[in-house]
Amino acid sequence: MDAPAAPVDGLYREHRPWLFGWLRRKLGCEHRAEDLAQDVFVRVIQGRKQVRANEARALLTTIAKGLVVDHQRHAALEHAYLAYLAAIPESYAPSPEAQAEQLQALVQLDRLLDGLPPKARSAFLLSQLDGLTYPEIAERLGVSLSSVQQYMVRAMSACYAAFHV
């Protein structure tokens, strides 16, 4: 017989302390752990899934791990952007508002790229960052030229949709 589904408020009361402690150990920051613990339960609510009581910790852990990875990627991206800003002359630095907008666009682009299949992501990055031609990308990835063209259409369409729709 299947275990009954647990209401979200019961999941929260029963598992939040454990989840908070797990996140605090992973992140080393009580405030960030608190935020991510709340985000985990928001995801559960948004998912509108029936959570079986005997599967609750596994589900909460899976969601939390994804949020921790997102947080770490965001922090690394922000760190790299701040290092870039520190390396350019102050007169060329964008305003604080522009910096915030640029960082948000970088995070959005990072999420978009993470959602692409690996070869499409690689083709896009080789083209846009390394300046390789499509034939060079095809050779590097060991795929046909038409595959590279398809990858680029997919990546560019995703970029357009993310930034212009």
Note down, in words, how this protein is organized.
- The chain has 165 residues and is mainly α.
- It has two domains: 8-87, Rna Polymerase Sigma Factor, Chain: A (Orthogonal Bundle), CATH 1.10.1740; 94-161, Arc Repressor Mutant, subunit A, CATH 1.10.10.
- 78% of the residues lie in helices and 2% in strands.
- It has helices at residues 8-27, 30-47, 56-87, 96-114, 118-128, 134-141, 145-164, and strands at residues 5-6, 51-52.
- A two-stranded antiparallel sheet has the order 1-2.
- The longest helix has 32 residues, at 56-87.
- The protein is globular.
Name a few traits of the molecule.
mainly alpha; Arc Repressor Mutant, subunit A; single chain; Rna Polymerase Sigma Factor, Chain: A; 7 helices
Q: Give the mean pLDDT.
A: 90
- What class would the helix/strand composition place it in? mainly alpha
Total helical segments: 7
Strand content range: under 5%
Question: How many domains, as an integer?
Answer: 2
Let me know the largest β-sheet.
2 strands, antiparallel
Oligomer class: single chain
